[in-house]
Write a structure and sequence with these properties.
Bound molecules: ligand FNR
Number of helices: 15
Strand order of the largest sheet: 1-2-7-8-9-10-11-12
CATH superfamily of the largest domain: Aldolase class I
CATH topology of the largest domain: TIM Barrel
Number of strands: 12
Helix content: 40-55%
CATH class of the largest domain: Alpha Beta
Cofactor: FMN
Structural class: alpha/beta
Keywords: Flavoprotein, FMN, Oxidoreductase, RNA-binding, tRNA processing
CATH architecture of the largest domain: Alpha-Beta Barrel
Oligomer: single chain
Strand content: 15-25%
Radius of gyration: 20 Å
Order of helices and strands: HEHEEHEEEEHEHHEHEHEHEHHHHHH
Largest sheet: 8 strands, parallel, barrel
Protein name: tRNA-dihydrouridine(20) synthase [NAD(P)+]-like
Shape: globular
């Protein structure tokens, strides 16, 4: 048992070392954005935070039509959709305040993902009042309990993503506890629960954490200075971390991961929409993501108002001159539907 755990820990360390990652973002990190980030060169992609209770309420559904595995609520809402192509690269982030429930949620999805991450950074009232997200970093015993159970019981690597505590000393105490649970890496966003994104990132806290622990540290919070892969590498060097995870820079232009340099926002929107069409992504989610990409061009872009008004994927196709591609995808889906009906009738 010890040898197999040791082998696993070597494997897991490599998985989180020298990597660039799409950081977890609610609403942004659904399947189309994750696949796009992988196309552009991200090594690992996080899903949006999903609360343990929610995934536990879902039914698993093999979606043969789209080639995905879906986790669906009884009203048909798709809570989590994943494609086989991302399995080895996908980190499933859980919102939790309870070790047993987190374990049950993680067990439900672990066969479809490469790793499980616990959100210990979300400062939103919804999370903190429920004892989740950033509420956890002031409860080291709870942190220990959740991570220890998950590390022991899951077959995939376990990590967590924290914010800093106001004092460096307390932050280091916390990460030492985290390290002692046997997690494979720790993500550190260099801001405290009460600091907003306009506050400078505490790169020096991340640096101190990276020095204090042996597990890989994933630096986060640097998006304001990140426009290219080279900027990510500078952020990594500055913080002395093993890897970098990027949220807003990727939300605004996901091609930030490209070795050859980022593409124009128009290219990114079109590639994003192709995946949204292909995987029948929810139209409100699609709209949100497209609006994030054009966020700083809202006033100058003639398409912006149309995007705000759009209510269907078809309308998005029209705005960006993609009708023929959209129709082709629908025709292929229809063909597949007919094949499946035939197969099930036989
Ligand atoms: C986030 N963030 C976040 N963090 C997390 O652990 N789970 C989540 O679901 C989310 N959701 C989320 C949504 C959106 C729209 C944003 C902008 C951010 C925080 C995010 O992962 C990251 O820690 C911060 O944005 C700081 O990193 P960047 O943006 O400077 O790279």
């Amino acid at each position: 048992w010890h040898i197999s755990k040791l082998k696993m820990s070597v494997r897991d360390e490599a998985m989180y070392t020298g990597k660039v990652m799409l950081a977890p973002m609610v609403r942004v990190c659904t399947l189309p954005m994750r696949l796009l980030a992988l196309d552009y060169g991200a090594d690992l992609v996080y899903c949006e935070e999903i609360v343990d209770r929610k995934i536990l309420m879902c039914q698993k559904y093999d979606n043969e039509l789209l080639g995905t595995t879906d986790f669906i609520l009884s009203d048909g809402t798709v809570v989590f959709r994943t494609a086989p192509r991302e399995k080895e690269k996908l980190i499933f982030q859980i919102g939790t305040c309870d070790a047993k429930r987190a374990l049950a949620a993680a067990k439900k999805i672990q066969d479809f993902v490469a790793g499980v991450d616990i959100n210990m950074g979300c400062p939103k009232e919804f999370s903190v009042k429920g004892g989740m997200g950033a509420a956890l970093i002031t409860q080291p015993e709870k942190v220990r309990e959740i991570l220890t159970l998950l590390v022991k019981e899951l077959s995939v690597p376990v990590t967590c993503k924290i914010r800093c505590l106001p004092s460096l000393e307390k932050t280091l105490e916390l990460v030492k506890i985290i390290e002692s649970t046997g997690v494979s890496a720790v993500g550190v966003h260099g801001r405290t629960k009460d600091e907003r994104s306009r506050n400078p990132n505490r790169d020096e806290f991340i640096q101190a954490v990276a020095k204090a622990v042996k597990i890989p540290v994933i630096a986060n919070g640097g998006s304001m200075d990140i426009k290219t892969l080279a900027d990510m590498e500078r952020f990594r060097e500055r913080t002395g971390a093993c890897s970098v995870m990027v949220a807003r820079a990727a939300e605004w232009n996901c091609s930030v991961f490209r070795k050859q340099g980022p593409l124009s926002f128009l290219d990114v929107i079109k590639s994003y929409l192709r995946y949204a069409f292909q995987y029948d992504n929810n139209e409100m989610n699609t709209k949100y993501c497209v609006l994030q990409i054009i966020h700083d061009k809202m006033t100058e872009l003639s398409e912006a108002d149309k995007c705000l008004a759009a209510k269907s994927l078809e309308e998005f196709a029209d705005i960006w001159d993609m009708r023929s591609e959209y129709i082709k995808i629908l025709a292929q889906r229809k063909e597949r539907q007919d094949e499946l009906s035939q197969k099930h009738a036989d």
